[in-house]
Amino acid sequence: MTKKQLDESVDYLKKRGFDVPEFGIVLGTGLGQLVDKIEDSIVAHYNHIPYFPLATVEFHSGKLIYGTIAGKKVVVMQGRFHLYEGYDFLDITYPVRVMHQLGIKKLFISNAAGAINLDFKRGDIMLIEDHINLQGGSPLAFKNVSKFGERFVDMSEPYDLEMRQKVEAIAKKEGVSLQKGVYASVVGPQLETKAEYRMLKTLGADAVGMSTVPEVIVANHLKLPVVAVSVLTDECDPDNLEPIDIEEIIAIASQTEPKMIQLFQGLIEAT
């Protein structure tokens, strides 16, 4: 990754009409309905944006969408990138750097995850308070990282406290049940074994997924306030573990997404 590549990506989008968005939003697996709320939208397909990776997962659409939500300018990633697709950490986080260079001031991230905390149920939404990086690497571990920001990044509060408090207040006002907890990020694409679920619980994880942490690390590198929520699509009880049905996971994510949209819309209005 070079500054020249970033400049070319950003220039392409600016010429398409992506004009200083205030908010960046990353949509997770099965979470695409938010784009229906975007007014006056402009779409850029990933395969047309210089140096952008391509989404290879069948249920990720691969579009960057610019427009307005609640009167505020937003840029939305419909389809993200994962280690399990064969991408590296720089590929995965490249779009965050592009959105930052376009001008976003806040970053919202969503994902679909499994509930490790057995007090949480499928269909719940979890506000991520902290994370455990089990992906075996960092998006900041490259030679010229200091040209893009400080090499050593503080992670004592990676998820913006002020925005988290706003999300909690919005959830209370809208009657949305909101869990809070720690998200563990693994490589995938295979799901976890019973022993691995037990390990994750011992480590202190409340939910597990295959994304989000690299983007959050880069957001902190860029000093970009970030908030993230998990839509919990399955219950990871090692003593009563049933085979995973991916189609069911997507369906639960889709059913729960309207609650997540309420939170993100409210956050945009309140920020």
From TrEMBL:
Q: Which InterPro entries match?
A: Nucleoside_phosphorylase_d, Nucleoside_phosphorylase_sf, Pur_Nuc_Pase_Ino/Guo-sp, Purine_phosphorylase
Query: What do the Gene Ontology cellular component annotations say?
Result: cytoplasm
Annotated Nucleoside phosphorylase domain residues: 23-268
Enzyme group, top EC level? transferase
Going by the UniProt record, its keywords in alphabetical order are: Glycosyltransferase, Transferase
Q: Per its record, what are the GO molecular function terms?
A: purine-nucleoside phosphorylase activity
EC numbers, comma separated: 2.4.2.1
What Pfam families does this protein's entry cite? PNP_UDP_1
**Keyword Glycosyltransferase set for record:** yes
Q: In which pathway does it act?
A: Purine metabolism; purine nucleoside salvage
**So which domain of life are we looking at?**
Bacteria
Task: Return one Gene Ontology term, BP aspect.
Answer: nucleoside metabolic process
Q: What does this protein do?
A: The purine nucleoside phosphorylases catalyze the phosphorolytic breakdown of the N-glycosidic bond in the beta-(deoxy)ribonucleoside molecules, with the formation of the corresponding free purine bases and pentose-1-phosphate.
Family designation: Belongs to the PNP/MTAP phosphorylase family.
- Any idea what this protein is called? Purine nucleoside phosphorylase
